[in-house]
Amino acid sequence: MNSSRLVYSTETGRMCPACSQPxxxxxxxxxxxxxxxxDGNIKVSRESKGxxxxxxxxxxxxxxxxxALSALGKQLRSACGSGGTVKDGVIExxxxxxxxxxxxxxxxxxxxxxxxG
Length: 117
Fold this sequence. Notes:
Layout: E1 8-9, E2 13-14, H1 29-32, E3 42-47, E4 56-60, H2 66-80, E5 84-87, E6 90-94, H3 98-107, E7 112-114
Parallel strand pairs: 3-7
Antiparallel strand pairs: 1-2, 3-4, 4-6, 5-6
Family: Belongs to the SUI1 family.
Domain SUI1: 43-109
Pfam families: SUI1
């Protein structure tokens, strides 16, 4: 039994390990990019660990796909007048803006909860 799988071909480039197709023609992309599952509770917190002492506001638990999460992140950054990013289904906004973020989310019909200090 040969358990080795083709991972790169000079003809087609990188190969998907799941479906053995070229990455550009991968049939399992939809499964790999599945919507992040939240627990239904939107949590707003403040964190500064591992960030050189700089504070960020985190929004976790949103059950949105990547595009909608990115758009919501942009709206929240605009509401706070600050920068930020979306990483691994978590919206990060630079600075301590927990109250502003909670107000903006409540105006959009969400029910966020403040967690942490």
